UniProtKB/TrEMBL annotation:
The protein's required cofactors: NAD(+)
Annotated ranges, domain NAD-dependent epimerase/dehydratase: 3-249
GO-annotated molecular function: UDP-glucose 4-epimerase activity
Keyword Protease attached: no
Name of the protein described by the UniProt record: UDP-glucose 4-epimerase
Taxonomic classification: Bacteria, Bacillati, Actinomycetota, Actinomycetes, Propionibacteriales
Amino acid sequence: MTWLVTGGAGYIGSHVVRAFQAADIPVVVLDDLSSGFEQFLPAGVPFEHGSVLDAKLVDHTLQEHQVEGVVHVAGFKYAGVSMQRPLHTYEQNVSAMVILMQCMEAVGADKLVFSSSAATFGTPDVDLVTETTPTMPESPYGETKLIGEWMLRAAGRATGLKHTSLRYFNVVGSGSPDLFDTSPHNLFPLVFDMLVRGDNPRINGDDYATPDGTCVRDYIHVADLAEAHVAAARRLAADEPVERVYNLGSGGGTSVREIMDTIREVTGIDFTPDVAPRRAGDPDRIVASGELAARDLDWQMRHTLHEMVSSAWQARQAAGDAYPR
């Protein structure tokens, strides 16, 4: 039996696909290529080009490939942009998920791993975020991810859908030189772009209540994230108990200045980041515990910060002129 990875041609989804392949679990990919790239797909992986909003295509994909479970990665992922495009965000993240779940129910595919987000928490007023930390999303993006979790919970009660949701913060690095993060909103690509252009990166605020004065956040390697999705799918397939949600966190966090220092070391480009004013609403520290995921999903931070930066930089360099600009 096969698993469907929606958004499997994107940065995160393509790593999930390769993790499934490494685990000898057959996969099929559905992706509209709005932010993904067909060249990210390994040879031989079946690919359906289109949107999760297309119910006929989703139904065809599930039946044609005898899909037993879905890893739902597809969605509109830009929290800041979602403030300007709320209806688009709801359509892509909520309406599409309704269609996906309806089609799954119709064909009897009863397992779903949801790639959720720590944006469901908003700005938590705790030192360490856990699965019981109140959810108070502050963007349409965060709201849609929380609604997705609610829909799974309701369907689980009503139809017996087996499900779990994985919440995480900042995903970085690369598991292969031919896979790279092209997001115009993520820290690593932003800094790399500036360095390639000869511009100076900047830090937004250096007077936070942290050891070096810069914000502390959770950063996890994309390959570690992909492995967690496979582990969750395996537990669902084996009918083993899972929590409704898991945080994939480091428990410690990394400061923006630590990242800048590591980028300077890895790239060999000497720079001193400019210091800009704080951005409104940026908290000092947001870090999550990964204890529950470690217990059930063998979740570990298997990559160091140096490995996160070096793998991302290697992939960016390997892309050369193929890197979207």
